[in-house]
Amino acid sequence: MGLEGVSSHSERLFLFNEYTGDIVRISYLAVITSIGFSLMNPFTAAANPTSGTLSGTVTLSASIAGKASPEDTLFIFARSTEGPPMPRAITVKKVKDLPVSFLLTDGMGARPDLKISNVPQLIITARISKSGKAMPESGDLQGLSQKVKPGDKDISIVIDQQIP
Question: What is the pTM for the complete model shown?
Fold first, then answer.
C-alpha cells in the first residue's frame, strides 16, 4: 500500500495507491508511529468478531538472518488469493521485534470494502524492507503462509527467501 502524498482534510486521509495510481480517500483513524502509519477502522463486524481476523507468528530463518538489520522495516499483510492485489490488512513492525506475534483484522485494510472476512482464502506475506517501502524491491527478504481462511489462528510464517 503506497503511503505517499498523505494529507488530511476534515478528519479524512487521502493516500496515493501505488497499485492502481488512484488517490484513495479513507476515514480511518491514522496512528503515526516511529515506523510509519498503521490504519485502524473503528467499525468492525459485530456478528462474528473472529471471522475477520488472522493471527500467528513471524520468524526469521537463521540462514538469512545476517542479511537483515534490527531497524529494517517488517511488513505483515494479507492478500486474497483472487482479486485485486491490494492488501486486505497490513501491520508494520521492525526486524528487532522478531520473532513477533501478529493479529490482522478487517479494520486494517486500505479500503473499507477490502476485508479479510469478504474472501474465502488469503495468503499472508511477511516482508523485510531495507528501504522502508511497501513495494517489494530486489534484496528484500520475505516469507509466505500457506493458503489460510478468515478466522485462522496459529499461522506460522518463516522469512526464508530473498527477492532477486
Answer: 0.71
